[in-house]
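During the second half of the funding period, the structural biology subgroup turned its attention to how the target accommodates small molecules. The most pressing case was flavin-adenine dinucleotide, which had performed well in the primary screen but for which no bound structure existed. We therefore specified the complex as follows and requested a full 3D prediction, including the ligand pose.
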Amino acid sequence: MKIKRVAIVGGGTAGWLAANHLGVELSRDPEIEITLIESKDIPIIGVGEGTVPQIKATLKRFGIAEIDLLSTCDATFKQGIKFARWMDAEKYGSDHFYYHPFSSPFPSGFDVTHYWLNNRDSFEYSMLSEIYSVAEMNRCPKQKSSPPYMGLVDYAYHFNALKFAELLAKNARERFAVKHLVETISQVLLHTDGSIKGFVYASGCEQEFDFFIDCTGFSSLLIGDTLGVPFLDKSSQILTDTALAIQEPVAESDEILPYTLATAHKAGWIWDIPLTQRRGVGFVYSSRHMTEAEAVGSFSDYLGRDLQNTQLRKIPMKIGYREFFWKKNCAALGLAQGFVEPLEATSILVTDFAALLLARNFPKTADDISVVSAHCNKAVSYTWERVIDFVQLHYCISDRRDSPFWIDSTTNPVMSDVLRERLALWKIGVPKKTDFFSSFDIFGVENHLFVLYGMDYPTRPGALGVNEASRSAELVRITQEKSLQMSQSLMPHRAWLTELKKALENR
Ligand SMILES: Cc1cc2nc3c(=O)[nH]c(=O)nc-3n(C[C@H](O)[C@H](O)[C@H](O)COP(=O)(O)OP(=O)(O)OC[C@H]3O[C@@H](n4cnc5c(N)ncnc54)[C@H](O)[C@@H]3O)c2cc1C
C-alpha cells in the first residue's frame, strides 16, 4: 500500500521543521498529502532560541531567505558559545572563560594542537579561532555586502522561537502546500496490528492517515503514550533537570553579544541569549542539588535584581531519549523523541538532522517501513548517545569542586563506555578525526578540541619537531592577527542589525 496521507502532530519547531523537510522531498508527488495538526489549547514550549550553523543549510534548503529570518524573528547572529566560570575560580580566576566558536582550530588546515599543548600557558586554545577577537569585540560576522547566509566568519542565529515556528509554518503552507489543521487529538485509533490508524478530535471528528510523525513535545502522545516505546532516562549522566526562564528587556543602546553566554553556577549554568528586542535568560539547575528558593536567589544575583516576586517560567526537563525514534508507521521528532538540556543547543540540531534523515528515507509503501526504520533507528540512537557524551563532557572534566553538584558531576560520574574510552585516549594523545567513527557523530574533533582545551584537559604533550614548532607559531600569529583585523573592520553587531532594520523600513 502506497503511503499517501501523512500526519505531523505538533506545531512547534519540530513539527514545522518536519513539514518543510518532508515538503522538500515529497511535494513532487501529487498523490502525497501532508497535514500538520496542532492544538490551540496546548501551546508550544516556546523556548529554544539558540542554534548551530547547520541551520543555515536547512533554511536554504527550505527556500527561506535569510532576510526573512532576520526581519521577522528578532534574530541575532551567534558565532559560538562563551563559557564563563566552568573552571575552579581559585585556580583560574572568577573571570575565566573559553569559547566554543563555530570555526576550526586548524589554521590553513594544519593541526597546531601539539604546539598549543607545549605552550598552553601563553594563550587560550580558543584564540586558535578567527572568531575569538570578533566575538570579544561584539562584531557582526557579516559585512554590509556579504551574500545571504555568508559572513567573514561562520555563524548561526538566536531567534524568537514562536516567531521562528511561524516563519517555518508560512513557508511549509505556501511553498509545499502543507495542510494546517487546528484540532486537539483526544483519542488515537489503532489497527489490529498495533500500528496507528487515525485520530478522534475533541471536536468529535475522526480522521485517518497512513503515516504519523509525533512532534507533540514532552507529552510524546504517539510514540510514548500510544506505542509504548520506552524512554531511556539519562539523568544519571546529566544531572540538570529544571530550568527557570525569563525574558529581559534591552535598551536600543545596549550592545548585542554575538554569542550565547553560558555561565556556570553551583548547580548548573545560566543561558543568556540576546535577541534584537530582549534577552532570553534561563537558569538551568539540578533540583537534586539546589532548592528552587536557592535557584531564584542565585538567578537574582546573576541578573542584579531580586526575582522573588517575579513570575519565572519553571520548566522541568526530562533528560533522555526514546529507545526507538521510529516504530511501525510512526516516527517521533523534537521533544517527543528526546531532550538533553539546552547546553550546546543540541535539540533543534538533532531534530533537524532526524527530520532530514526521515525525509530522505521516507518509505514509499508500508512494506518499506521495517527496512528503513531499522536503519534510521540505529543512526538516531547513535546520534543521541554521542550528543549526551558531548554535553556531559562540559561537566565531567571541570575541576570545580565547590558544591555537591560539581563533586557529583566530576567524581566517578556515570558515563558511556565511548566517552570513558575517549577521555582515556585523550589523556595520552590529542583528539584526531579518526577517533570519530561515524558521520552520525554530529560533534566532531574540532568541537571536542575547543571544549577539552578550553577546560585545560590534561593531555600529555608530544614532542614537537623544529619545523612543526616554527610553522605552528607562524600560523597562530597569522590567525590572531587576522582575527584582530576583522574585529576592527567588521561593524558592531547592534549597528549592523539596526542598519538592516532601517533599510527594510525605507524599502
Ligand atoms: C529550557 C529549554 C531550553 C531550550 N533551549 C534550546 C536551545 O537554545 N536550542 C535548541 O536547539 N533547543 C532548545 N530547547 C529545545 C527546543 O525548545 C525544542 O527542540 C523545540 O522547541 C521543539 O519543540 P517541539 O516542537 O518538539 O515541542 P513543542 O514546542 O512543545 O510543540 C508541541 C506541539 O504539539 C501539539 N500537541 C501536543 N499534544 C497535542 C494533542 N493532543 N493534539 C494536538 N496537538 C498536540 C501542541 O499544540 C504543540 O503545537 C530548549 C528546551 C528547553 C526545555
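Two results from this model are relevant to the next phase. The CA atoms of residues 82 and 261 lie 5 Å apart. The first strand starts at residue 5 and ends at 9.
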